[in-house]
Structures are given as C-alpha cells and as structure tokens.
Prior knowledge:
- This protein has 141 residues and is an alpha+beta fold.
- The protein contains three helices and five strands.
- A hairpin with a 6-residue loop joins strand 4 and strand 5 (34-36).
Amino acid sequence: MHNHVxxxxxxxxxxCGGDLTINSMLPCKNGxxxxxxxxxxxxxxxxxxxxxxxxxNEQRFHFYSVFVGLVxxxxxxxxxxxxxxxxxxxxxxxxxDNFLAPLAAPLLSTAMITVVILWLSTIIxxxxxxxxxxxYFSYHE
Length: 141
Ligand SMILES: [Zn+2]
C-alpha cells in the first residue's frame, strides 16, 4: 500500500510505511543524510555519499594510471629494443666488473624507467581525478 508524501508545497509522491511530510529537509537518494531542498535540487546526495563517490572515482583513476603507465613503459621498452636491439643499460657503470652486470644492468635500468613512468602517470591521473571530483562530486557547503 502507498501513503501520501508531501515535499515542499507542490511536490507530491508515495512511500510505503506511513505518511511523510518533508518541508525544508530531504533525504538523499540513499537515505543516509538530510539535505536542504536547494541542495537536493543541486545534487540529490549527501556529503557522505559524495565522499564515497569521490573515493571510488580516485580508485578508478588510480587503476587507469597503473594501466596507462605499464602500457607506456612497454611501448618505450619496445621502441628502445627496436632502435638499439636491446633493453636500456644506462645503470651499467654502477656494477663495475661484477659478473652479474650483463643481466642486472638491463633489468634494473628497465625497472627504474618503469617506476619513473608509473610515478609520473600516478601524479597526472591524481590531478585528473581531483579535477573530475571537484567538477562532478563537489561537496555541499
Ligand atoms: Zn547520502
């Protein structure tokens, strides 16, 4: 069965469980916070819900940043391999005459470049996530 709901002066609707009159404060769409009618019109979610959306969005962008960073690293290494016939070995001088140098230098050089690319990608995507959050998930004042 449905009960009468009055929202403000002219918005009408139905809920189950009992009559409900909401004058100036409204529940957010998830029902875990109350908003003024103006805020509800602007964005029908409370700050708690918006905080969850912001966090999820950050996680999503972080996932993209790792993916993009790894793809770019792979492309850089592939390009290096095509141009020079092998992986980068700029860390070779570090190893002097160590017998592991021929193996370790390219591996560590590659790892270092990958870490730098991932780091840059993370910074860029963090900035993009912040901009997106501020545009689409701004908090109610
Ligand atoms: Zn909420």
